[in-house]
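Recall that a protein's primary structure is simply its ordered list of amino acids. Everything else, from secondary elements to tertiary packing, is in principle encoded there. The following example makes that idea concrete.
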Amino acid sequence: MGFRNSSLVVKQLLKFYNGCKRREVTLGVKRSYLTESTNEMRNAFGEEKMDFNVPEDSIHDWIGPPDKFSNLRQIKFHVPKNETPLEHQLRTLRMETQEWNQQFWVNQNLTFNKKKEEFICTDLKTKGLERRDEEGRKRTLTADEMAIFYKEFLNKNFQKHVNYNKEWYKRNFIITYLMGKVAFHRAWRKLCRKN
């Protein structure tokens, strides 16, 4: 692919991204769920958002501990004092992508755990067993029994994951492109200052 063609592809992807900002991308999950913030979900489960402190004089992004529900690490993005519009666009897209990713995986993990628990309870009931044994410990199923659940869950959520991966690649391609532009503009400014 020549330079002109790749430039056209990037312009089309940026046009697509700007269109996505205006409309809701649901990725096969309920729209109302995606508009519900992760903090509201935490409140429903009696959890508070994990927070970590960043030194005020920091000039870098900081990566925090993994989130309890999504298993993704939180990121606190550095905001430069003289942030250019291009740098602002990049940081905003990275923040939106982080939040989008967070919401998807919170939803996916909570759904997975709920369905897994339902599967275990149903299977134990068909065997005539309670969820807990005589000593109060939770009963579990064998790996072969759980394999049925895992296969069923993956099959039911296949299209959701395909849609997620497509959107993830689009977002990361645009982020990479913008990072290249920002790096080029910073290098260009340094060159101009030296001359």
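The chain has six helices and two strands. The helical segments are 3-22, 31-35, 38-44, 85-126, 143-156, 158-194.
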